[in-house]
Write a structure and sequence with these properties.
The chain is an alpha/beta fold and 338 residues long. Helices cover 41% and strands 19% of the residues. Strand 7 and strand 8 form a beta hairpin. Helix 5 packs parallel to helix 7 and helix 7 packs antiparallel against helix 8. The longest helix is centred in the C-terminal third of the chain and has 30 residues. Bound molecules: 5'-O-[(R)-(carboxyoxy)(hydroxy)phosphoryl]adenosine and zinc ion. The site of zinc ion has 4 residues, from helix 4. Zinc ion binds next to helix 4.
Length: 338
């Protein structure tokens, strides 16, 4: 087995084209990201066909960019990793075809990576990474899950959302507040100007035992509050604040419960909503009371990126895994299948 490996990572599961190079000894050498957000904004959501076409346009120049930034030639790349799912099938196929083809042309092993495993292990890219085992809170536009991570590749889902994902609830509420799409970060910014005492939103499913989540009722509660109130700037900010406080407290309560249930002392938070400052602050406070520790990826690696895919690909290739010449993607792919 090779001791040092430099892996090219490619992420194209949704509306961001991410490319990175990870070195098993030196860490991340280069990464770049192109976001399609302006293309989809006018439609109020991701248009799959437009996403696939734009990945095709951007992927090769972005690969050239990271190779130049890392100062590497193709002979110095020892493997290629691409996101194989879950995600939009057309978008996934672009990264899979390019990744598999480069692997073939450069004569290096290739591996298809699970997008959520990428998110889950993104904190490993930080200077002070968590150690196994840990509880992971995965909060993105498509997922809300608490996962028991015994070691890499060993994932047990402890609980997940029975309806909307938390990022989806952020985005839908943001849209109702006229904040565009995807509006999670804009809603968080508006919430900073809100009065925390004006509205009180329910904390869904905290009275029931277990680690399941539900966010669609909260979104409806927000919709009803918005239509019953005047739409001045302060009222919109107060609603955003009440919504965010309810989401953050609910996530915090379930994380604390997961730590109690397992007796584990390490919490990892990942996925786009992990960029939320209020969530990060509340979880930091909560773990102090539990004599536990919480780890986050840096803000830019909370949302989709190529670095997390290069990292996971590197670990799996180092362990001797790789795929054959076929190109496969999995639009639906349970993390517990890994
Ligand atoms: O992980 P991600 O980039 O893509 C998926 O795999 O889904 O997550 C995107 C989600 C979107 O719903 C976006 O609104 C949300 O993360 N998001 C945030 C923040 N930044 C991104 N939600 C709340 N607060 C933020 N600061
Ligand atoms: Zn993602």
């Amino acid at each position: 087995m090779q001791s040092e490996m430099r892996i090219l990572g490619i992420e194209t599961s949704c509306d961001e084209t991410g490319v990175a190079i990870y070195d098993s000894e030196k860490g991340l050498l280069a990464h770049t990201l192109y976001s399609q957000v302006t293309i989809h904004a006018e439609y109020g959501g991701v248009v799959p066909e437009l996403a696939s076409r734009d990945h095709i346009r951007k992927i090769i120049p972005l690969i050239e960019e990271v190779m130049t930034e890392a100062g590497l030639c193709r002979k110095e790349i020892n493997g290629v990793a691409y996101t194989a799912g879950p995600g939009l099938v057309g978008a996934l196929l672009v990264g899979a075809c390019i990744g598999r083809t480069i692997g073939f042309a450069w004569n290096v092993p290739t591996i298809g990576v699970h997008h959520m495993e990428g998110h889950l292990l993104a904190p490993m890219l930080e200077p002070n990474p968590p150690s196994f085992p840990f509880i992971a809170l995965l909060v993105s536009g498509g997922h809300t899950q608490l996962v028991k991570v015994a070691k890499m590749g060993c994932y047990e889902i402890l609980g997940e959302s029975v309806d909307d994902a938390v990022g989806e609830a952020f985005d839908k509420t943001a849209k109702l507040l006229g904040l565009g799409y995807p509006g999670g970060a804009a809603l968080a910014e508006l919430a900073d100007q809100g009065n925390p005492d004006r509205f009180h939103f329910p904390r869904p499913m905290i009275d029931r035992p277990g680690l399941e989540f539900s966010f669609s009722g909260l979104k409806t509660f927000a919709a009803n509050t918005i239509t019953s109130q005047s739409q001045d700037q302060q009222t919109r900010a107060d609603i955003a604040r009440a919504f965010q406080d309810a989401v953050v407290e609910t996530l915090m309560i379930k994380c604390r419960r997961a730590l109690h249930l397992t007796g584990w002392k390490t919490l990892v938070v990942a996925g786009g909503v992990g960029a939320n400052r209020a969530l990060r602050e509340q979880l930091q406070q909560m773990v102090v009371g539990e004599s536990a520790a919480v780890y986050f990826p840096r803000q830019e690696f909370c949302t989709d990126n190529g670095a997390m895919i290069a990292y996971v690909g590197c670990q799996r290739l180092l362990a001797g895994e790789h795929i054959d010449l076929s190109i496969k993607v999995y639009p639906r792919w349970p993390l517990s299948d890994l």
